[in-house]
Amino acid sequence: MSKSIHIYGFHSIKAQLNSNPEYILNVFVQTGRSDSRMSEITSFLNTQKINFSKIDKNKLDRLAKGEPHQGIVAETILPSLPGQDALISFVTKLSSSPLILMLDSIQDPRNLGACLRSANATGVDCVVINKDGSAPINAVVHKTSAGAINQLKIFQVTNLVRAINALKDKKLWVIGLDDSVSTSLYDVNLIDPTVIVMGTEGKGLRQLIKKTCDQLATIPMIGNVESLNVSVATGIALFESRRQRQSS
After folding, report:
1. Cβ-contact 43, 109 below 8 angstroms
2. What is the SS3 assignment for 179?
3. What is the pLDDT of residue 245?
4. d(CA 58, CA 99)
5. Taking the chain, what is the end-to-end CA distance rounded to the nearest angstrom?
6. CA pair distance 110, 67, nearest whole angstrom
7. Which of 19, 5, 6, 2 is nearest to 147 (CA)?
8. What pLDDT digit, counting tens, does each position of 219-236 carry?
9. Sheet bearing 52-55, strands edge to edge
10. What's the sign of the alpha-carbon dihedral 209, 210, 213, 216?
11. What span, in angstroms and rounded, lies between the C-alpha atoms of 23 and 160?
12. Burial of 27 (0-12, 13-18, 19+ CB in 10 A)
């Protein structure tokens, strides 16, 4: 069943208006705001016949749960994400060499949003997340993704191992990022149909996920840090895949 959430900030709300305005139920703007940015968006809301009302800053703060909202909050429908059957059907219909990002239990919504932003920037075909153990798609994810979430195909599966095996059956090569191996990401073929799997903050990929991947690779580092933030590592891996594909 679909539910509604409150998203906030001009960028998130404009991205929602540009992609799926029919999902927006109500918009709340801060009383007394009459600057050009607010006037522009309220004019657009009037044109689209989307309800909006003016409320004071304290009420906006409560709707945004204390997050910076820039004087505007929108209640929007959050559709249910499609599952594994829809994922395999989607992948089967892709004509070019697919690039899929799979996220194993990313628990910080800001990291999840940043991963989605990189996925959109590198043109991945879809993103796969797990239903249990992953941060929910919420207002923080919307905000951090900078609108990317509205442009991505996202699937939510119950069991990542089963999803990996199903994708392998479709001839995709599954590469897990893991800092305990010696194989450099830069020596791995990322041009062919590929699934890049990223692990959770701190612990990385779960053991069974590692065993199910076709190959494990690491991002070589020369400094004294032991690991990278998962969203940074995701960006590096995805842009390396894009670089290889553009050079081939």
Report:
1. no
2. coil
3. 96
4. 44
5. 44
6. 12
7. 19
8. 998 887 777 899 999 999
9. 3-8, 72-78, 24-30, 52-55
10. positive
11. 29
12. buried
171 vs 165: CA distance, rounded Å = 10
- Predicted model pTM: 0.91
| Torsion angle in degrees (nearest 10) through CA of 108, 56, 18, 87 | 30
Length of the chain: 248
Which tokens sit at 200?
Answer: 């959770």
Cα separations in angstroms, 215 against 46, 98, 189:
53, 17, 11
* Residue 68 CB burial class (10 angstroms; 0-12, 13-18, ≥19): exposed
Q: How far apart are CA 115 and CA 196, in angstroms?
A: 12
**Which residues of the chain, if any, have pLDDT below 70?**
1-2
Q: List, for residues 90-140, the tens digit of each pLDDT value.
A: 999 998 899 999 999 999 999 999 999 999 999 999 999 999 989 999 999
Q: What is the pLDDT of residue 201?
A: 80
